Amino acid sequence: MGLVRAVPVSGMLPKGTKVLSIGLHPRSLDYRKMPEGVTQEALTARIQAANSALRESGFDVVTCLVDPDPDTAEAAVAQELGAGSFGLAMIGGGVRMVPEHTLVFERLVSVLTEAAPGIRLCFNSSPETTLDALRRWIEP
Predict the structure, then answer these.
(1) N or C: which end of the chain has fewer CB within 10 A?
(2) Is 9 helix (H, G, I), strand (E, B) or coil?
């Protein structure tokens, strides 16, 4: 088995880079599996607050909330990619960190890298960490 060398990523993206922020739509989640207090209404409010913080910070963000069905999620992201040129895509923790969404995550990464060669990817762990995820990649 050969060694894989990491290829360094060159610098940060310029301010004004268009961002596609992808997450699971709150209506599509099973709240019986969530910690107490996490409801559709509460999660929706957290996402809205995060999106407001992004806009207030000057980021050019398009939000794409998807269903957990891989085909539907892939089609929604492909549609957004066809409507604009994005330099960065943020994939939310609900897509990546929940084992039953692994196929959705794989399909989204594939459609992003195929439809937008050179796009950078970043990840949050909650709506509240989205701003930090974007700041890691886009110049202030």
Answers:
(1) N
(2) coil
